[in-house]
User: What shape does this take?
Amino acid sequence: MEGTNGNMTDAAAETTQTNPVEETALTNPVEVTTQANTAAVTGRVKSFDRGRRFGFIAQEGSGKDVFVHQEAILGEEGQYLIPGDRVSFELTEGPKGPRAASVRKL
Assistant: This one.
């Protein structure tokens, strides 16, 4: 195809179309939690596996165990819990039961 200046051009180069890609937020359904109680709950760390980065907290009062992942611990990155630590946290509902969020050592 001949261009406006007499040079040969590629038709594909003249007709460029942009196809905007719609960004969608992908979530892992295993990590999605719903807020069950925004009030701070206290408890003691029952167990915590540093290698697997998760453990369980026994709630004070009810004694029910709550799952906790290292990512839920507030403070320095890479911080972990030690069995016996007293903590406060927000109680949320995970796919397999109660889950701790916004965990703070007391």
About this structure: The beta strands are 34-49, 54-59, 65-69, 86-94, 97-105.
